Amino acid sequence: MRPNHADPSLELKHLVQNRGATFDLAFSEALISEIAQQLDLMSLRKAKFTGTVIPIGKGDWGLSGTLGATVEQPCSLTLVPVRTRIDATVIRNFRRSPVKLSDAGSDNEIPDDDSEEQLEDIIDIARVFSEALSLELPDYPRAEDAEINSAEFGPPGVPPLTDDSAKPFALLAGLKDKLE
Fold first, then answer.
1. Is residue 24 pLDDT above 50, yes or no?
2. Residue 91 or 17, more confident
3. φ/ψ of residue 126, rounded to 5
4. Residue 155: alpha-carbon gap to chain centroid
5. Is the pLDDT of residue 170 over 50?
6. At a CB cut-off of 8 Å and minimum separation 6, what does 124 contact?
7. Which H or E element spans position 173?
8. 179: number of CA atoms within 13 Å, CB side?
9. Crossing angle, helix 29-38 and helix 125-136, to 10 degrees?
10. pLDDT at 118 over 60
11. Which residues does 140 contact at the CB level (< 8 Å), separation at least 6?
C-alpha cells in the first residue's frame, strides 16, 4: 500500500486483520512544504518513511517504520542554516481502548508510554512522520563555527550584569574578601 499526498493514510476498514500492510510514504512537493512549514524548517529534503502496520491484539495495530530526512534549521546563535541528517526508528501502537494517562496529576495528561496512541478510523502516516521527525530535530542547532561571546548589558550609569555577578553568592564572596 502506497499512501499518496492526497490521502497519506491507511483506512482500517481496508486492512486485513491477520496480515497488516506495508507502507512507503510518497512525498510530494506539497507534503514536504507543509511539513517543513509546520516544523519551522528552512528546508526538508531526502524525506522517506517506510514500514509496516500489523495487528497487535484485538482491534489494535502496531506501526513500525524507518524515518529518514535531511533538514535545515537556523543556527540558534547566528541564524545561519544548519543541515542535519536524521535517521530514526519509529514505533507507534494504536489502541482501541483509551490510552492510559500519566498519574502525575490532572493538569498533566501525558500518556505513560509515548508510543501509545488512540486508534481512530484511519492511521495518518504523514502525521506520524511529522510527529516523529519533530521529536528527532535538534532543539538548539548550532553551526560549527558559532560561539557564544560574552555580552554585558545594563542601563546607563549602572555597572553591567556579568556572569560572575549573577551568581547567587558572588556578592557575599566579595564582601567576605573586603572584610579579610
1. yes
2. 91
3. -65, -40
4. 39
5. yes
6. 8, 9
7. helix 170-179
8. 6
9. 40
10. yes
11. 76
Q: What residue type is 33 in one-letter code? A: S
Name all contacts of 143-148 with Cβ < 8 Å and 24+ positions apart. 143/75, 143/77, 143/78, 143/80, 143/82, 146/75, 146/77, 146/78, 146/80, 147/77, 148/77
Lookup result for grid cell 509515548: 114
Query: Grid cell 486483520 — which residue?
Result: 17
Helix (H, G, I), strand (E, B) or coil at 4: strand
pLDDT of 154 strictly over 80: no
Residue with cell 490532572: 106
**Stretch (H or E) spanning 31:** helix 29-38
- CA gap 66, 48 in Å, rounded: 8
Global confidence as pTM: 0.70
Contacts of residue 54, defined as CB under 8 A and 6 or more positions apart, other chains included, come to 19, 20, 61, 62, 64
Between 158 and 100, the more confident residue is 158
What is the spatial distance between Cα 85 and Cα 42, in angstroms, rounded to a whole number?
14
State how beta strands 116-118 and 60-74 pair: unpaired
Which cell goes with 63? Answer: 506501526
CA 25/CA 30 separation, integer angstroms = 13
The alpha carbon of residue 106 and the mean position of all alpha carbons in its chain are separated, in whole angstroms, by: 24
- Percentage of the chain with pLDDT > 90? 33
pLDDT(73) > 70: yes
